[in-house]
Amino acid sequence: MTTKTRTVVVTGSAAGIGQHIAADFARSGARLVLADVQPVDETLTLVQAAGAEAHHVHCDITDEGSVRSFGERVAEICGGSLDVLVNNAGINGEAQLVQDMPLASWQRTIATNLTGTMLVTRELIPLLAADGGGQIVNIASNVARRGLPYRADYVASKWALLGLTQTLALELVEDGIRVNAVCPGPVEVDRIEKVMQSHAEAEGRPVEDVRREWEAGSPMGRFIEPGEVAAVVSFLASDESSAMTGQALNVTGGQIMT
Fold it and tell me: What is an example of a Pfam family matching this protein (predicted)?
């Protein structure tokens, strides 16, 4: 009996968490569609080294036309039936108090993290439903469950993403599509250094103090490794989580427990 090769779309796959998620699926033998506005050469190398088929499709998730063209290309690649969508693409925004926040900064973060996720999901739902269903995994954040000073735009976008996750789970259950989310704490990738530096500058203190404070906020006393996030994504996209939809799993070293 021939086992069907799963097709997996990972947005924001050029680097960081998205790159690790793509590599993890590649090691399981999946076909990857790598979506990003940035070059994905490094991720392609990792995926192909694992012996997996990979395609790069440029996509600006904030542009409806770009997302539509992306969806058409994905349909060609997967033959009209998609197995997994991982909505990982997003931006951090700049660390700033609400009282100092330009409207453009707020709108850019919401447009990327929330509206962009909606646009990609809306475009690919027919492909996910085509062969009896599939899985959607949204990458949220630990701040989808708590406030964080200086990051109102990012926090609001991630709280809203959990609402979108739950609503999609209810809307798509009859199509056999499960929709879940992952809420990571600070993840040890290049991007976190920029986030901490932004906080340090906004708060007027050394970046080392920011790291120590954030590490101390986790009972495990450390940041999360990207492979730990990827493993939970793979679980939610597998049959092992077949009774789960509308859920958000914390990967925070114990920082968030509910």
Answer: adh_short_C2
Stated as kind and residue range, the H or E segment containing 60 is none
Closest CA to 3 of 245, 243, 239: 239
Q: By percentage, how much of the chain surpasses pLDDT 70?
A: 99
List domains and CATH numbers for the chain.
7-188+226-251 (3.40.50.720)
| Sequence-ordered list of residues with C-beta below 8 angstroms from that of 227, at least 6 positions apart, any chain | 20, 24
Instruction: Please report which residue ranges of 58-206 form alpha helices under DSSP H.
Output: 64-78, 103-110, 116-129, 152-172, 190-203
151 secondary structure, DSSP code:
B
Rounded to 5°, the CA angle 230-70-62 comes to 80
The amino acid that residue 208 corresponds to is E
Strands (E), the chain: 7-11, 31-36, 54-58, 84-87, 135-139, 178-184, 248-251
Contacts of 144 (CB under 8 A, 6+ apart): 155, 158, 159, 161, 162, 181, 183, 248
| Token pair listed for 22 | 């793509």
Q: Indicate the SS3 state at residue 88.
A: coil
Is pTM beyond 0.85 here? yes
Quote the CA–CA distance of 33 and 154 in Å, as a whole number: 26
Token couple for 137: 């995994």
d(CA 92, CA 113): 9
CA 234 from centroid of its chain's CA atoms:
12
Q: From residue 165, give the alpha-carbon distance in Å to each of 13, 52, 137, 239, 250.
A: 20, 29, 8, 19, 14
The string of pLDDT tens digits covering residues 20-44 is 999 999 999 999 999 999 999 999 9
Q: Which residues are identified as catalytic?
A: 154
Residue recorded with tokens 């799993």: 249
